User: Fold this.
Amino acid sequence: MIKVLIADDHPVVRMGLKFILENESDISVYDEARTAREALELIRNTKFDVILLDISLPDRNGLDLLEQLKREHAGMNVLIISIYPESLYAVRVLKAGAAGYMTKDSAPEELVRAVRKVVAGGKYVSPSLAEKLAQDLDDNSSSTPDEALSNREFQVLCMIAMGKTIKEISNELFLSEKTVSTYRTRILQKMNMKTNAELINYSIRHALV
Assistant:
C-alpha cells in the first residue's frame, strides 16, 4: 500500500486529492497537514512513501520546506502540487530535489500516475514540461538571468513582480524588511537591472507572473 501525506492549507483541495487517491486500491492517504510545521511533525513520526506538498503554505514557503526535507530525509519522495504554472516553478523545484511537479488543474488520472511513478523511483513531469526540457538541452541560449538567482531571491523577484511592497514581502516570508531589501539589491545586481519596473517587465515577458 502506498502511504501518502497531503500538505496543503486548503481543506477543499485536501479533500479532492484524498478522494481521487483513495479510489485506488493500492494508495492510502495516511495523514494530512495544514502547515509546514504540522507536516514536519508528521514526517518525523511516520514513514510516508510520498508527500504531496503545496508550494504555498501559510507558515512557510513549500520550496523552503522541500529543501529542508531533502537535507533531513534525502530519499523522500516529494511531489509538488501547485496553482502556479509549470513555467514558474517546475524546473526550480526539480533541481531542489522534488520528484515531480503538478498543477492543481491536472487531470485526476495524472495525479495517480504521478504518485505511482515517483514511488517507483522515477520523476514525474508533464508532457509539455518534458518537451521544454528537451528543447532547452538543444538550445544553448535558453539560459535566462533569473536562473542565476537563489530560490529565495527568485521568490522575492516573483513577489516584486506581483506588485507587493517590501513590507508585504517581509510579512509573508517572515523576514525583516532590511533582509528583503538586501535580496532586492542582489536580484538587481545579478540580473543587471536598476529598477522594480525593469524586474516587473522582465517577469511579464518570461511569464513569471
